[in-house]
Amino acid sequence: xxxxxxxxxxxxxxxLLMVLLFYLLLYRPQKxxxxxxxxxxxxxxxxxxxxxxxxxxxxxxxxxENTVMIEVSKGVVxxxxxxxxxxxxxxxxxxxxxxxxxxxxxNAEKEAEESK
Length: 116
Hints:
The structure is a single chain. By secondary structure, this protein is of the alpha+beta class. It has two domains: 1-43; 45-116, SH3 type barrels. The chain contains two helices and five strands. It has helices spanning 3-43, 92-114, and strands at residues 49-52, 57-63, 67-73, 76-81, 85-88. Strand 2 and strand 3 (67-73) form a beta hairpin.
């Protein structure tokens, strides 16, 4: 390899490095976030607690093709476009209850194994 070949390759190195950094820092994380959002929207069902991108919190009443009906207060149901659903969430009390149930189930299975 001659000096001129090396100089030509090294002149492209900053551009290649910038493309690599762009991919690693911007494109890849954005794609992961979009995939996560699409998965969450696909899992929506009646009873799921959600927060819209506008900050409205409620419980999913029904899911349609392009919209979601959200009950924001007893008897108050609003229609929201699916892409405007920000996140689904679980309250702290529900999470603690699920953890207690999992521990109880584990302990019951352990006792059943020990009694055999």
